[in-house]
Specification:
The structure holds two protein chains of two kinds. Chain A is α/β, with parallel strands linked by helices. Chain A contains 15 helices and nine strands. Chain A has helices at 8-17, 24-36, 50-60, 76-79, 85-100, 114-121, 131-137, 154-166, 197-202, 213-223, 229-243, 253-265, 273-278, 280-283, 287-297; strands spanning 40-43, 64-69, 81-83, 127-129, 142-147, 168-171, 175-178, 184-189, 204-207. In chain A, the strands form three sheets. A five-stranded parallel sheet of chain A has the order 2-5-8-1-9, sandwiched between helices. In chain A, strands 3-4 form a two-stranded antiparallel sheet. Chain B is an alpha/beta fold. In chain B, helix 2 (21-33) packs antiparallel against helix 3 (39-50). In chain B, helix 15 (315-329) links the parallel strand 1 (303-309) and strand 2. Classes of the chains: A alpha/beta, B alpha/beta.
């Protein structure tokens, strides 16, 4: 299989065609991930479009998106594969029935010794694939998204290493399942804990930050098409202003979009200080933050 | 190209970034796919392969600018031949601004200031960078070969440009143009102009860097620009910005600490037989309970007592300490914090429900009753009081972390308290923000206390703090 993308600008245009506005850095790293056949580890504040990037790349390359949502306590049987023991049990039961019945019907039922049976119950028919294995075995183009990888414990992280570096999974009973094609892999992290060196070494690293003013405006314009230029401009300026404050949680891009949609729904043409304060709770999620922002935005009032 | 890259990587390593061999190879591979001409993409390609932590990005960027600033498309030709013969004042790219650049040399300072004002007003980037170049030529007073850091030139140039006055004028202009702005609009306009001025400042900085590189070579310049990485910044002498970066880095660390402290409980001990689970698993053996399953004991939630010195001598450290305490308390179910100078007070309540750490710190500094006599550290008295008032609340679940330099102003050490504390507590650790070589000099009596601690750690920067966390079992 050849490379997916022509050039860095092609990646950017492709992403733009599915309404994801990437800057040079993002496009460059996606391009590189394909060329080097390496997974991408995406870090950055919540809500800047990390998960969205993986989804958009899938949409743009017309691949299937396989998503592994990480959480504390995620284990092999949820991430890689599991044996379908109920089905295995039934298979063994069936064998028993055959053996205890008379020999006449034996020819139609599965027959043979224990070793045949063992081989049978550990065959692919009894394997339940989980996202990682699924992505490895897929024959159609896939994008694998390992979401919030920082949520799993350090020990569980090791599960990912084999998949990420060699694109293969070892199953003791079956042997090694190698990828038929290299999936594009994205891992996202909110940086709640430091990931292991081993994991980082295997990945390309991409830090997505809050977008520049112009790009954020463009994002608002693309995602909320009915918005006026003036309003979009004001919105992103206010958001930038808020991000410069010391807040518990800064407004993210997705919250900017929510805000823009709300204001459009309210039929606002432009934002006055009052209207901004009334709708701040869409942008900010903590009471103290809202108080602080309200104070800041109206600080010049007295002056 | 490969030579350049090798030099680049060794400089990154010298700056403290951990670049492994694999990453080095990846970078080499990456640059084969992305052309140097596409500078932004090229930069991110190198960044993606070499830098694996956002806190290192800034250091990376500086080194990148130094090594590749003369190699963008616009510098290509001139950089190679234009400069060698010159007097160092001629700089690649000067001729690119053509007529404008030439005209600028003849401009009076007033005209230049006017041009700058216009450029900032209209956000004209091309003019802005031309002005930046011109400003550096005129004001920085750069002399080839003079061993002065870039910040000196930057300071000189910016002082002449008087950006504060420019900002004031811009605001006035905006006010007049619109016929009265609402406070909100005013604020937004100010933000906008400030960001433009910031762009100018960066442009000037980049220009100075380019000239330095042309004059002295990348390696030498990179060396002078080296700054400690966030994890190596000394707590005691961190600047405001560095402090901010430190604070962001604390969070992942406290999670690690939480995991470490809880782990010991989880490993190696098995609880009673878990009948249900055993039966369920027996199904895969055809109903034979071949693999007994045990219930794991619920990991006991560790308790932490943080006792921190917040006296003047460790003030900077104390601030950091309090932030650390705050971060810890969001990770553990039970953290109690105590601060002392010569008196001691519990400050847990200030952190509870405090969403804003600055406010909590402020309350600690104003409301906590920590001064007993004269406001000079007295570890002995503080410990004694601590033992009297809270000693019996220490249980075998408690880990006690003491933070301070153990500079006791020649008071009695009362180290028996620590001995008692240790008898009751699970662990006692001491973190000292002073370099190890200063310990036990002057009025520092750390070793007296250290005798009753499970460990003493020098803790001047994040790397050391992380080391401490790693040492915990």
């Amino acid at each position: 299989m050849g490379p997916r993308f022509e050039s860095v600008p092609a990646v950017r245009e492709g992403l733009a065609s599915v309404s994801y506005l990437a800057d040079e850095g993002i496009a460059g790293v996606v391009y590189l991930a394909d060329r080097l056949g390496k997974p991408v580890l995406i870090e950055g504040p919540a809500g800047v479009g990390k998960t969205e990037l993986a989804k958009s790349v899938a949409a743009m390359t017309q691949s299937r998106l396989i998503r592994l949502q990480c959480y504390e306590g995620l284990d092999e049987s949820k991430a890689l594969y599991e044996w379908n023991y109920k089905k295995q049990l039934l298979r063994i039961q069936a064998q028993r029935v055959v053996e205890s019945g008379d020999g006449a019907t034996a020819s139609s039922a599965p027959s043979g010794s224990w070793s045949d049976l063992e081989e049978d119950i550990f065959s692919e028919d009894f394997l339940l694939t989980r996202p990682l294995l699924e992505a490895i075995r897929a024959t159609d183009p896939v994008v694998l998204l390992v979401d919030e990888v920082d949520r799993v414990e350090v020990e569980t992280e090791a599960l990912l290493l084999e998949v990420l570096s060699d694109y293969q999974v070892s199953i003791p009973e079956l042997g090694t399942v190698a990828a038929t094609q290299l999936p594009l892999v994205f891992l996202t992290s909110n940086n709640t804990r430091e990931l292991s060196e081993a994991l980082k070494r295997r990945c390309l690293y991409l830090h997505i930050d809050y977008p520049e003013l112009e790009r954020e405006k463009a994002i608002v314009m693309t995602r909320v098409p009915e918005i006026s230029d003036h309003l979009a401009d004001q919105i992103v300026r206010i958001v930038r202003s808020l991000r410069s404050l010391e807040l518990k949680k800064h407004p993210s891009v997705s919250e900017t979009l929510d805000w823009a949609r709300t204001l459009v729904l309210l039929g606002a043409e432009s934002i006055g200080a009052e209207q901004a304060q009334d709708t701040l709770h869409i942008l900010l999620k903590y009471r103290t933050d809202i108080e602080k922002a309200t104070k800041e935005l109206s600080v010049a009032e007295g002056a | 190209m490969l030579d350049l890259l090798a030099g680049f990587i060794s400089e990154l390593r010298a700056a403290g970034l951990p670049v492994s061999l694999t990453e080095n190879l990846d970078a080499t591979e990456a640059v084969r796919h992305i052309p140097l001409e596409d500078r932004e993409a090229f930069k991110y390609a190198l960044g993606a392969t070499l830098v694996k932590s956002n806190s290192h990005w800034k250091a990376f960027e500086t080194v990148f600018e130094v090594y590749f600033s003369l190699r963008g498309p616009q510098w290509d030709i001139q950089a190679e031949d234009g400069d060698g013969n010159g007097d160092g004042r001629r700089v690649p790219g000067e001729d690119r601004s053509l007529a404008r650049g030439g005209a600028m040399d003849a401009m009076s300072p007033e005209q230049l200031a006017e041009l700058l004002y216009r450029a900032l007003m209209d956000a004209d980037d091309a003019v802005l960078s031309a002005v930046a170049r011109q400003a550096v030529t005129r004001f920085s007073g750069m002399e080839p070969g003079r061993p002065v850091g870039g910040t000196y030139y930057l300071y000189r140039t910016l002082r002449k440009l008087d950006l504060d006055a420019v900002l004031a004028r811009l605001m006035e202009g905006a006010q007049e143009a619109s016929g009265g702005l609402t406070p909100l609009e005013q604020r937004l306009a100010k933000d906008e102009y400030e960001s433009r001025i910031d762009r100018l400042r960066k442009e000037v900085e980049a220009e100075i860097r380019r000239r330095l590189v042309a004059d002295r070579g990348a390696q030498a310049v990179a060396k002078t620009l080296r700054k400690p990485l966030p994890e190596d910044v000394d707590f005691m002498h961190a600047s405001r910005d560095e402090m901010m970066a430190l604070r962001r880095a604390i969070h992942p660390l406290t999670r690690k600490l939480a995991v470490r402290l809880a782990r010991k409980r989880r490993h190696g001990r098995k609880g009673p037989l878990d009948f249900r689970n055993t039966m369920r698993h027996s199904l895969s053996y055809g109903g034979v309970p071949a693999e007994p399953k045990f219930r794991y004991p619920r990991p006991a939630k560790p308790e932490i007592f943080v006792i921190a010195d917040i006296s003047g001598s460790v003030a900077a450290f104390a601030r950091f300490t309090l932030q650390l305490t705050h971060a810890i308390s969001s990770q553990f179910s039970k953290v109690r914090s105590f601060v002392f100078i010569d008196g001691i007070d519990e400050v847990t309540r200030f952190f509870e429900g405090a969403e804003d750490i600055t406010e909590a710190v402020h309350r600690v500094n104003t409301e906590a009753d920590v001064v007993w006599v004269d406001g000079h550290s007295d570890y002995g008295h503080a410990l004694e009081t601590f033992w009297e008032r809270w000693g019996r609340e220490i249980s075998p679940k408690t880990s006690v972390i003491l933070l301070g330099d153990a500079r006791n102003n020649y008071h009695a050490s009362q180290s028996w308290v620590l001995k008692e504390v240790r008898r009751r507590a699970r662990h006692v650790y001491w973190l000292d923000p002073e370099p190890r070589s200063y310990w036990d000099t002057g009025d520092s009596i750390l070793s007296e206390y250290a005798a009753h601690c499970d460990g003493t750690f020098e803790c001047r920067n994040l790397r050391q703090l992380e080391h401490f966390v790693e040492e915990l079992d």
